[in-house]
Task: structure prediction
Amino acid sequence: MKNNFSNMVPLTEDSPKKQETVCIFGTGDFGRSLGYKMMQCGYSIVFGSRNAQTSSLIPKGAEVLSHTEAAQKSGIIIVAIQRQHYNFLAELTEVLQGKILVDVSNNLKINQYPESNAEYLALLVPGAKVVKAFNTVSAWALQSGTLDASRQVFVCGDDSNAKQVVMDIVRTLGLTPLDQGSLLLAKDIENYPLQLFPMWKFPIYLSLGLSAAFFFYCLIRDIIYRYVYEGKDFSFFVAISIPNRVCPIVALILLALVYLPGVIAAILQLYRGTKYSRFPDWLDKWMLCRKQLGLVALAFAFLHVLYTLVIPIRYYVRWRLNGYVISQINSNKTDPFNNVNGWISDSYVALGILGFFLFVLLGITSLPSVSNSVNWREFRFVQSKLGYVTLILCTAHTLVYGGKRFLNPSMYRWYLPAAYMLSLIVPCIVLVIKFVLVFPCLDRPLTQIRQGWERNSSGS
Amino acid sequence: MKNNFSNMVPLTEDSPKKQETVCIFGTGDFGRSLGYKMMQCGYSIVFGSRNAQTSSLIPKGAEVLSHTEAAQKSGIIIVAIQRQHYNFLAELTEVLQGKILVDVSNNLKINQYPESNAEYLALLVPGAKVVKAFNTVSAWALQSGTLDASRQVFVCGDDSNAKQVVMDIVRTLGLTPLDQGSLLLAKDIENYPLQLFPMWKFPIYLSLGLSAAFFFYCLIRDIIYRYVYEGKDFSFFVAISIPNRVCPIVALILLALVYLPGVIAAILQLYRGTKYSRFPDWLDKWMLCRKQLGLVALAFAFLHVLYTLVIPIRYYVRWRLNGYVISQINSNKTDPFNNVNGWISDSYVALGILGFFLFVLLGITSLPSVSNSVNWREFRFVQSKLGYVTLILCTAHTLVYGGKRFLNPSMYRWYLPAAYMLSLIVPCIVLVIKFVLVFPCLDRPLTQIRQGWERNSSGS
Amino acid sequence: MKNNFSNMVPLTEDSPKKQETVCIFGTGDFGRSLGYKMMQCGYSIVFGSRNAQTSSLIPKGAEVLSHTEAAQKSGIIIVAIQRQHYNFLAELTEVLQGKILVDVSNNLKINQYPESNAEYLALLVPGAKVVKAFNTVSAWALQSGTLDASRQVFVCGDDSNAKQVVMDIVRTLGLTPLDQGSLLLAKDIENYPLQLFPMWKFPIYLSLGLSAAFFFYCLIRDIIYRYVYEGKDFSFFVAISIPNRVCPIVALILLALVYLPGVIAAILQLYRGTKYSRFPDWLDKWMLCRKQLGLVALAFAFLHVLYTLVIPIRYYVRWRLNGYVISQINSNKTDPFNNVNGWISDSYVALGILGFFLFVLLGITSLPSVSNSVNWREFRFVQSKLGYVTLILCTAHTLVYGGKRFLNPSMYRWYLPAAYMLSLIVPCIVLVIKFVLVFPCLDRPLTQIRQGWERNSSGS
Result:
């Protein structure tokens, strides 16, 4: 709704009443943009600057004064200058006494300084109430009104009244304030806009690496081998046929890797006899990106579905099917219907459809708004129970696809097994271990350990 | 974003400053886990316990004292003990006077006790400010940092300052507090984590029942009948062909059942001449799970689409099409193009595509984050207008699919009509009644009644 | 979760304790419905009315008094009367002194009055604390408990304590209060429920217009032309074949129109040498509905995918393919495999699949809950980088589809080029300009301008 609101407010609107005066230190791009936006929403703006001259860039109607004069005009001072120029603020400690200082700064790198800019500001000006805000909004977005992604403004600070005042300003600008708690969290808020999908990096690099490896593997088996031994040019397979081998393989391996760390953690806990020891770092990190791994797997599965469904409209497939009919006619015999083939063909497709269906369900429940509306028990039911059913269905889909071909020596070109056989290794390992862990003799102690019981504990 | 935040905070981080001391009553699993997490976030923790000995399980750095001593050290006491052991707290009334008591308990069953645990606690310790919180977070999730589903912490309480203090702790732990209002709502908050999709049970059981019934119906008509009379084994139909009959049937019936209660309610209101009488309970419950019914219907429609799109890659279908071509060749004639068949084939497919498209649109608008961003008028437009168009398109899809076959006696094997004919009954009833209700002579009084007018009213 | 909560509370529940007395002015439909709901949640209700008689419509247990008497009984007065009857409230100024007045009114048209109803109320009764709330909830929804879309209650007001009191009532009713800030925002809140997808109108009308135009264009080329010159009746093409030409064309043009305003804005900024001049109004509006344009384009692309995937199950397509095989047999020759055709067929399909895949990704990231969980940098990465890759893939898909046919004169029926050629004009223009803008000699000054630099500036 916020979206519609600010869209409906014409940007040049004259607000009915001036609400209050806000002081902005710094006449750089962000200070000017913020001032411009605030004036549109009815605030009086005073800029504090080293050289107190109104330049053509300053929004019309705003005053430009020296820092001291400007600070005296308002109870709220927005510090829109860079951290390395904060020093002069220490000299203004007296005039800033009891006032609200809003730190809007960002850094260039994650964890650039030992403490956050806002905490540094609070140290410099001990008497002021420092609030961190607005750093997640871009100047360009404020200017143009196209605030699709950045409507949320994270606010933190130690003084709760000061936070309220700042959050009211945020709301008046048509943005959504999110109270993040005390100033301790300023570091997270400052790091936030510098991130570029941190949790997605490992899953995406892993999937790209797997895709490349299997792509070349299939290239060798399906194009180069045939070119060398059969003299046929199947180079156009790189467009659809090979991607349609690579995608399901990567999807199945990634899906299995979602459930592998849980299985490893269970073994570790059983071995250690306690849940209070920390997991190794790599396992912790792996467990934290399981959701992203699963969603990347879903993306590959989605591509596999599309690649599969277009098979009948491919020129090559139509040509081959026609050739098959013509060869039957010419040899004057019709192949009888093979009931086993009918069963295999239909059941591997049906398993794939059901697996993909559950996979999509899992993907939908990991949307933030959906996972927020289920409780812990429901979430575990979906992600654990349904997730394992999905893994079983997808593994079975691949196994039945293999069908009678597993032992067919013609499948081992240059002694290389078909790619789909390699993709079955990880899922089968996960499913076997999980199957073992489900037995009561292992499940019961594991449940106890996860409820806080310790094997070697004397206390409690 | 919360997600990324807490993921980036290393779990072993030494926090820069100790904020304040919080007391936790109880050294069970949840108490220890919460204490451990709070110490990571910079709090000092004092455990209150019957036997004040530090065991190996207590997080390092936390003190363990008697209940009274521990309570004196802090203004906030987290009561991490089970309800049946609350009694001893009545003896501590004096030392707990004016302090904030946080009830984190859960029950084993929904509505286990007449009043909520938090209200019971408030009765036991009248001078304390009781706040309900943290019960939706699992100890295991706190421990492992994998808080995907349970990032939301519902908070309620009668004292607004006490609530603020607790919500600040929640935020510092990297969780999202949601103020639910007064302590009256504690019962709902305590029931919440015990639910397992309460609104989904009826739609899912209904759809499974319908699926099973139609599955056996089709099994008899399509496999057993053919085996008995034609001696052919079509058992592999259970994988794709029969599911692809059952899915659209169940989807269409469920979609009609979404709109049936609205139509019944309109008739009831017209008959009673008022909207202020309550509907019968079954109708109330039915109306409340319409969204879930619709989403289950969408799931079946999605499966139907997948099952339909894989038709051309099935071995059986290819074999039959080849046989058809070969038989044409052998008999040396080519079937001419039948324009009527072209029209019927294309239009029933087109109707299905449009119906599924609108169905997906309806599904997307019922995602929580999407339905939150539309207003009442827009929601009604989509769910009512678009919904009926979807129902009309899907019913027409089925009718045209039937095409000329309705009166074909060969369709009535063992006097059983084809399954799709049965699926048309409910949608047609709904559409006919709705069509009648749209006439002004019925629509006008209905609109008046829904605006508060009463037929038999003298007052107002 | 809210959803589940209020669903679980039976509507006839007797609340354990009466919380407080709330006064409602007005016994119309909304006042009665709200009173009924509040009584279910444990409030005592006093109605203020001109004729203080209890009618049968008033919920049982509620008192009806004169306005003055009713107002004296409570600190909170909900004004459930229409704006044109507000005048009498001015006479009650004394008794309303210091009380909380909740304005729940709506207008019939957007911006019906110069100031909002709530601000008008605050002018009439200067001593009262006016809070705007509840106007987005419908009486019918309150009554029936089916509050799917309208669970959010926007609250604004100048007195922060009064807002808190009202927000607590909202929470107790099982609704979600959203603090919108000061009373200045009442106008937006009052306009909100009157909107019907304001940002979607332009994209939807544009897409319908384009669809109609291209539909008739294809009708002429594919059906009428053939009927006139070849005497064949292809009228059934209107069901699938022509929609499957129109959908991809409209999708591609709309997708290009998403990126055209950004390109125009860049040219304008380069020409003006500043980002501080406002864009023309049409450009501003265009930029604000880019998200909606993109989603409508995605809908058309989705339809195109469905229409394409059903091709092999169409009767016409099967008949034509069979005819092709039979003609090969009869002429006793088999067409050899054409490697170029294999490449073209597979690569245009593969480009389409990848384009659609990225398009779906873009659509998912524009879901409110997803776009709220990414920061500005991530959002720009997805919407700008991925968006352009999508546009390139989709344009390439269309170009390769054209393949060798571009210069084939048989494609120019009645001198009309094939429709897909027309669809390439806008995307190619956008991509060419974007390609030029990426060159450093233009990209560098543009980046500087967007960081606040001005070509003709002396100050700063």
